Amino acid sequence: MSACALCSSDGELSEFAVVPKEEVVALCDVCHPQVSGDAELDENHWRCLNDSMWSETPAVQVLAWRMLNKLSATDWAGGLLDMLYLEDNLRQWAEYQEVVAPTHVDSLGIELNPGDSVVLIKDLDVKGGGFTAKRGTAVKGIRLVENNHEHIEGRVSGQKIVILTKFVKKQ
Q1: What is the pTM of this model?
Q2: 90: domain range?
Q3: Which CATH number characterizes residue 144's domain?
Q4: Is 140 inside any structural domain?
Q5: Total domains present in the chain
Q6: pLDDT tens sequence across 16-36
Q7: Is the previous residue joined to 58 through a cis bond, with omega within 30 degrees of 0?
């Protein structure tokens, strides 16, 4: 690894795996965080794709296509994207999107974890329980419902109930 696969910088390089094939390319410390989404895109830096999009390395072509797509609102990137041709198998690779499992979040968007304590933000009629769980009630030691990110379980008035995450606030 002697130069960045995308911008040809000879600065500090690190490996980047191009998913889902996990082919590795060397990226500089400017390209790497932007490609991985850890840093804001510097539009001018990516003008280097004018050269790297023609690379003979499939993983570099895929990354160039992905970055041009992210920047496609700019005239220059849209024009380059129109010129870039990828074989069907490379286009499928380039279009691959990792599926991120949804997380359980409270009414404010704060992530919930097993064992957390929450407070009800609304009076809730407990079906089959014959009572109303009042707003402000603390529910300790919650359990996350695995197949539904909108549901948690907890004990209120000694009964195990299912609660919608939109009606709780993490303590």
Answers
A1: 0.60
A2: 13-95
A3: 2.30.30
A4: yes
A5: 2
A6: 999 999 899 999 999 999 999
A7: no
